[in-house]
Amino acid sequence: MAENTDLEELRRGTDLVKRGFARMQKGGVIMDVVDPEQARIAEEAGAVAVMALEAVPADIRKRGGVARMADPADVAEIVESVSIPVMGKSRIGHTKEAQILEAVGVDMIDESEVLTPADDAYHIDKREFTAPFVCGARNLGEALRRIDEGAAMIRTKGEAGTGDVNQAVHHQRTIKGAIRKLEGMSHEEREAFAREIEAPAELVHETAEMGRLPVVNFAAGGIATPADAALMMHHECDGIFVGSGIFGAENPPEMAEAIVEATNNWDDPETLAEISKNLGKSMKGDANVDLPEEEKLQGRGV
Amino acid sequence: MSLTAGVVAVQGDVEEHAAAIERAAAARDHEVTVREIRDSGIVPDCDLLAMPGGESTTISRLLHSEGIAPEIRDHVAAGKPLLATCAGLIVASSDAGDDRVDELDLVDVSVERNAFGRQKDSFEAPLEVAGLDKPYPAVFIRAPVIDVVGDADVLASWDDRPVAVRDGPVVGTSFHPELTADSRIHGLAFFDNEAAAVPWLEGRN
């Protein structure tokens, strides 16, 4: 049996360790929860992780006012209640909320446009943290700027709390479309494209060579049914965040389980049909076309 | 000869394992076709199997609901190789110490989930592994440790705790050999395991 492992060579919080964590979430569903009971329902249904929040985005929308990080005591309680990873949301640019969440022991921090941004100009310097971050993006420029700041995972912004998948589809198509365009470009065209989308050239080249984002790319924002989750997998997302769609539904445990199964069976219509039967009402939601511009969250933090 | 490899793909880092299998096979001049297993009916066609990292509760749940679990048991009973990493090892163990995981009992060890702590305690480090001449760059992510070893060989330990084992045709690791470009662990599990009954080992000297 081999011995003499060198404990001094141990390294934490490296890109490999942070991005590796995100990779372990692939093909999975991450669910918004507001208390330990919901967290246990999510875990029981097969969620790969839960996002601990004070209120789901649909309720944040309704309530208005300033939306902040959840009470760390509540987050800690959720961390204790399940064996799967727990994520928490900080405001955009709010380094201190992120540090508090890291201290409480969350496994990943979502620097999220769903909360009221704390900084108009800058995001958190995510490289300073041991905990990995996920950030939202509407297009390739936003995605690569966030990765440059240290994000280990990108998710579409979609339009959170609406139950309308329209904007998540739009953002995913925009990102994939830009990557396809990049693949056909010469070196100097890619350099010019990097300037145009205000992204670091190095990351633009890396993305072009890989034919995908250099980190895991999830869908988020408006996913409310098993069919919605399957649609986002069809659009080549690596996995799914579901916010208000589960605990805003008539029958949360069944909806949660169905979304997990649909994410695995996204390319099998007959199984999807079985999964989608008799789930009760999905969240009511608000159609994106009816939403006044000033109520949209996706423009926060570009 | 041409091989069929399967990667259990109900959840977790599947592409990374597929790429590592392809690299390990290419290094030995084997042709390999990798298939993703999200449904029953594919495992019986596979010469070798990898069970990836991910969330053990999710993987366990889907393996049973999709009817893949008994096929993996048959695969190992036939002596064909299986590499189970991190969550895969938890699911393959004989005791995961957690009733949310329905173990396959393919490796005679009990494991402790998240034994190194939460994600902020995850780490990478060079690891001495029996059968490899140089240390292996091991990545531990919310990793389990093996706390009781039954009828299995320990291949590596970290801080005196077993993190890689072999039980007949099955190799299990608490770290993630699929996350780095070094495919020696895949080579060890699939091509250099004398205990595995595989056609490509039979004819060799």
Describe this protein's structure.
- The complex is a heterodimer of chains A (302) and B (205).
- Chain A has one domain: Aldolase class I (TIM Barrel, Alpha-Beta Barrel), CATH 3.20.20.70.
- By secondary structure, chain A is of the alpha/beta class.
- In chain A, strand 4, helix 5 and strand 5 form a beta-alpha-beta unit.
- Chain A contains 13 helices and nine strands.
- Chain B has one domain: Rossmann fold (3-Layer(aba) Sandwich), CATH 3.40.50.880.
- In chain B, the strands form three sheets. A seven-stranded mixed sheet of chain B has the order 2-1-3-4-12-11-10, sandwiched between helices. In chain B, strands 5-6-9 form a three-stranded mixed sheet. In chain B, strands 7-8 form a two-stranded antiparallel ribbon.
- In chain B, strand 10 and strand 11 form a beta hairpin.
- Chain B starts with a strand and ends with a helix.
- At the A-B interface, strand 1, helix 1 and helix 12 of A face helix 2, strand 7 and strand 10 of B.
Write the layout of secondary structure elements.
The complex is a heterodimer of chains A (302) and B (205).
Chain A: E1 11-12, H1 15-24, E2 29-33, H2 36-45, E3 49-52, H3 57-63, H4 72-81, E4 86-91, H5 95-104, E5 108-112, E6 133-137, H6 140-149, E7 153-156, H7 166-183, H8 187-196, H9 201-210, E8 216-219, H10 226-234, E9 239-242, H11 244-247, H12 252-264, H13 269-276
Parallel strand pairs in A: 2-3, 2-9, 3-4, 4-5, 5-6, 6-7, 7-8, 8-9
Helix pairs in contact in A: 2-4, 2-12, 7-9, 8-9, 10-12, 12-13
Chain B: E1 2-8, H1 14-27, E2 31-37, E3 48-51, H2 56-65, H3 69-77, E4 82-85, H4 87-92, E5 93-95, E6 107-112, E7 123-127, E8 136-140, E9 145-149, E10 153-158, E11 161-167, E12 170-173, H5 184-190, H6 199-202
Parallel strand pairs in B: 1-2, 1-3, 3-4, 4-12, 5-6
Antiparallel strand pairs in B: 6-9, 7-8, 10-11, 11-12
